[in-house]
Design a protein that fits this description.
The complex is a heterodimer. Chain A contains four helices and seven strands; from the N terminus they run ααββααβββββ. In chain A, α3 packs antiparallel against α4. In chain A, the strands form two sheets. In chain A, strands 3, 4, 5, 6 and 7 form a five-stranded antiparallel beta sheet that branches. A two-stranded antiparallel ribbon of chain A has the order 1-2. By secondary structure, chain A is an alpha+beta fold. Chain B has one domain. In chain B, β4 and β5 form a beta hairpin. In chain B, about 20% of the residues are buried. The mean pLDDT of chain B is about 85. Classes of the chains: A alpha+beta, B alpha+beta. Chains A and B meet through α1, α2, β2 and α4 of A and α1, β4 and β5 of B.
């Protein structure tokens, strides 16, 4: 009789332990899902997309003719087509590269006194890399996404925090 | 007679034990679930606060974008095709002269545009005399309280070369300060 009571008590203990384990597993799953969700929300790309949109309109120092200067968007196309140089003889790709580097360095300064640890910038035309430069280190916490534009141009900018 | 009484007493005791056992079990399970509920509630409250902060930041960012694309600021099709996040600097300078008319229109305490590229060592505020050789346009000068947000924009204006006009766009940041809603 005593043995049967002991066995029943043991069974109940096992049942209780099972409930605790199941609830703990459910909680862990819930925790993991919630943490992943909040991480995705932090990765806002509004600032980066505005940055990319804005640099495309930037007027470069490369003149097409006397009072008409190329914008970054037009310079990307010119650089890709190798049709002509700037009016002052500079190569369109050189001007594009130096202008973009200057803009990104000034807008997303990498250093100890800034929250930005590094960045990566590249432009592809028809899936071929036209311009590529990077600075600093890459981390898991980043901001940015690829942005497609007409003429099969894709601009990728990622800032690492 | 005594045997029957003893048997009934034993049965009652056994039943009482069973009831006690079940009560303890129910109590333990209830306490456990209450603790679990408290943990989930605490976690949810924490994430709700984070979500509120993210939403507030997103709203502020949308406000800046909305402002940049509003008729008072936007380039429209003056500089070729329609552009997003493009501010007409000439229009903004005219707006700066008449900022008193727009008092309370945007519900923002401070609006500034800072030229980023090409950069300069120190900030030169834009006015009728310094424009366009300046890098800071203060449209609305209020107290810098509450939240401040900024976003990238292209700042375009008409320049002239030997009498003929051409478009010049630079990179700038539109900065906005506004009071937090309690």
């Amino acid at each position: 009789m005593k043995k049967i009571i002991n066995k029943r008590a043991q069974e109940e203990m096992v049942g209780f332990a099972l409930i605790i384990i199941i609830v703990a597993v459910i909680l862990l799953v819930f925790l993991a899902v919630s943490l992943n969700k909040s991480k995705e929300e932090v990765l806002g790309t509004n600032e980066v997309s505005s940055f990319v949109q804005s640099i495309l309109s930037y007027t470069t120092s490369c003149a097409e003719y006397q009072d008409n200067y190329y914008s970054i968007q037009k310079l990307i196309i010119e650089c890709n087509n190798y049709e002509s140089d700037c009016l002052d003889g500079r190569k369109t790709c050189d001007v594009l590269n130096s202008t973009l580097k200057g803009i990104v360095d000034e807008s997303w300064p990498v250093g100890e006194n800034t929250p930005i640890i590094g960045y990566e910038f590249f432009i592809t035309v028809n899936d071929e890399v036209l311009i590529f430069f990077e600075e600093g280190n890459k981390t898991l916490n980043s901001k940015g996404s690829p942005q497609p534009f007409p003429h099969s141009i894709d601009i990728y900018f990622t800032a690492y925090y | 007679m005594i045997v029957i009484k003893n048997k009934t007493q034993m049965k009652t005791k056994k039943a009482q034990m069973k009831i006690q056992q079940t009560a303890f079990m129910l109590l333990a399970i209830t306490i456990f679930f209450v603790l679990v509920g408290l943990f989930v509630l605490m976690f949810k409250m924490g994430s709700m606060q984070d979500t509120a902060e993210i939403l507030e930041r997103d709203n502020a960012m949308s406000l800046v974008t909305k402002l940049a694309n509003s008729p008072e600021f936007a380039c429209g099709s003056v500089f070729g095709t329609q552009k997003v996040d493009c501010i007409d600097a000439d229009k903004v300078m005219a707006l700066k002269q008449n900022s008193a008319i727009y008092e309370g229109f945007w519900g923002i305490s401070n609006i500034e545009i800072l030229k980023i590229y090409p950069g300069s060592e120190e900030n030169v505020e834009c006015n009728i005399i310094t424009y366009p050789n300046c890098n800071l346009i203060r449209i609305k000068e209020g107290e810098l309280t509450g939240y401040s947000v900024s976003n990238f924009v292209s700042l375009c204006r008409k320049e002239s070369f030997e009498g003929s006009p051409y478009n010049k766009c630079e990179l700038a940041r539109l900065m906005v300060s506004y009071e937090a809603i309690e």
